[in-house]
Structure formats: structure tokens, C-alpha cells
Specification:
This protein is mainly alpha-helical. The protein has 6 helices and no strands.
Length: 116
């Protein structure tokens, strides 16, 4: 993945956190580890350590920040992973992922597979 600016990476990580919190759940260890790993390895944010600093990014917020289509497509992949990080597909988390994908106007076969 190419270098991503802090506003974009914060928005993606914030959306990942919102997916993890779907349905009023607390963040699990797997959620936390996944977001921190995405920050470090995928978004190259070696300095990022505190999930509490992330903004609560809603679908419209993500649309406003992610102007690059390929980056938006990549972001939805990260969000989709969040629906499964605890070892099973979480329907509440998947619903949140679909809200983001609809807002970004992104359709993908892997999303269809998750829904089915």
C-alpha cells in the first residue's frame, strides 16, 4: 500500500474502531490488536499506540476524507476484516461495514460472500 496521510489513516482507523464497537460492545483484545496492527503494518503509523485518540468516524465522515477511490476500496477491506476478527462473523459488525461500503459506493464480491 502507498503512503497514506494522517487524516486519511486516522479516518480509516476510526472507522475500524466504530465497526468493532457495533452494537454497543466493548473492544475485544482481537479488535484492539487488529486496529493497532493495521495502523503499524498497513498504514505505516509506527507512532500510533492509543485507540482512544481516534475520532468516531461515521460513514459520511469517511466519504469526506477519502477522496481517492483506490484508498476507499482498501479501507472497506480493512473494515470487513473487523467483522471477523474474533473468529466468527459478527452480523452487527457486518451491518456497520455495509453502511460504510454503501456510503463510499463500493461493491465487492467478498462483501456479497460475507452477507450470504
Amino acid at each position: 500500500m502507498r503512503a497514506v496521510g494522517h487524516p486519511e489513516s486516522d479516518a480509516i482507523l476510526g472507522a475500524m474502531r466504530q465497526v468493532a464497537l457495533a452494537g454497543g460492545r466493548a473492544l475485544s483484545y482481537a479488535d484492539t490488536a487488529s486496529i493497532l496492527s493495521a495502523a503499524h503494518y498497513l498504514l505505516r503509523r509506527r507512532d500510533f499506540v492509543d485507540l482512544g485518540t481516534l475520532p468516531a468516524v461515521e460513514p459520511a465522515d469517511l466519504v469526506a476524507v477519502l477522496q481517492d477511490r483506490s484508498l476507499a476500496e482498501e479501507a472497506i477491506k480493512y473494515l470487513a476484516v473487523m467483522a471477523m476478527v474474533d473468529g466468527t462473523l459478527d452480523r452487527g459488525k457486518l451491518r456497520r461495514v455495509l453502511e460504510y461500503s454503501r456510503a463510499l459506493d463500493i461493491e465487492a464480491d467478498y462483501l456479497t460472500d460475507l452477507v450470504e
